[in-house]
């Protein structure tokens, strides 16, 4: 699999429960390491890569095949940060690093409440974080040695995560 990679710069997946700081971290890292930030949620909306609106879950029903087709060329080029609260439908070969952001429950609760989440949507996301669903999903779908869990409770955490990841990007060597 490694021999197929032609990219000169690494691709990173930043995942985690909604509210853990994926978009904040991804955009800061994109600036710090000159990578392209792709928010899957925004892409789905912009390019209509969905099968309608789910009233119960209050979100678009993402069309995973359309999303993967849309991104294939970009991912092959490399230097992309993908930002999404799921990781089980992307091709494994796309990513050199899979980052799972994690946030302490009461902090996450406040962030999601501020964002207007309530009822089942709020409790589902808090449960998702308590049970470390995204970390499990990442470990199931990618080699464990490329998966890293990072704490994202404070703004200092964002800064140090961005620094750590930018250093990793700058030291990354393409497979020759
Ligand atoms: P996600 O993309 O994972 O849903 P966001 O990056 O949109 O999360 O962050 C959600 C909210 O929480 C934003 O208001 C952001 O400023 C704040 N936030 C995210 N991560 C942190 C952090 N580590 N420390 C403090 N505030 C944060
Ligand atoms: Mn986001």
From TrEMBL:
Catalytic activity, reaction form: AMP + ATP = 2 ADP; ATP + H2O = ADP + phosphate + H(+)
Region Disordered: start-end pairs: 1-26
Catalytic EC class: transferase
GO cellular component: cytoplasm; nucleus
EC numbers on record: 2.7.4.3
Region feature (NMPbind): 39-62
Entry GO MF terms: AMP kinase activity; ATP binding; ATP hydrolysis activity
GO BP annotation list: ribosomal small subunit biogenesis; rRNA processing
Places the protein is found: Cytoplasm; Nucleus
Keywords: ATP-binding, Cytoplasm, Kinase, Nucleotide-binding, Nucleus, Ribosome biogenesis, rRNA processing, Transferase
Biological role stated in the UniProt entry: Broad-specificity nucleoside monophosphate (NMP) kinase that catalyzes the reversible transfer of the terminal phosphate group between nucleoside triphosphates and monophosphates. Has also ATPase activity. Involved in the late cytoplasmic maturation steps of the 40S ribosomal particles, specifically 18S rRNA maturation. While NMP activity is not required for ribosome maturation, ATPase activity is. Associates transiently with small ribosomal subunit protein uS11. ATP hydrolysis breaks the interaction with uS11.
Subunit organization: Interacts with small ribosomal subunit protein uS11. Not a structural component of 43S pre-ribosomes, but transiently interacts with them by binding to uS11.
HAMAP family reported in the protein's UniProt record: Adenylate_kinase_AK6
Family per record: Belongs to the adenylate kinase family. AK6 subfamily.
Protein name, UniProt field: Adenylate kinase isoenzyme 6 homolog
Species assigned in the record: Cucumis melo var. makuwa (Oriental melon)
């Amino acid at each position: 699999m490694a021999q197929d990679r032609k990219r000169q710069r690494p691709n990173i997946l930043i995942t985690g429960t909604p509210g853990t700081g994926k978009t904040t971290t991804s955009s800061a890292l994109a600036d710090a390491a000159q990578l392209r930030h792709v928010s899957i949620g925004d892409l789905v909306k912009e390019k209509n890569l969905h099968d309608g609106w789910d009233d119960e879950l209050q979100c678009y029903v993402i069309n995973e095949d359309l999303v993967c087709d849309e991104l294939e060329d970009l991912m092959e080029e490399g230097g992309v940060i993908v930002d999404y609260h799921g990781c089980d439908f992307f091709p494994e070969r796309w990513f050199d690093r899979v980052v799972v952001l994690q946030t302490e429950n009461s902090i996450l609760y406040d962030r999601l409440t501020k964002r207007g989440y309530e009822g089942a949507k709020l409790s589902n996301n808090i449960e998702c974080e308590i049970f470390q669903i995204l970390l499990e999903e990442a470990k199931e779908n990618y080699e464990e040695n490329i998966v890293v869990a990072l704490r994202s409770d404070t703004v200092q955490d964002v800064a140090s995560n961005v620094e750590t990841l930018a250093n990793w990007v700058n030291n990354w060597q393409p497979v020759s």
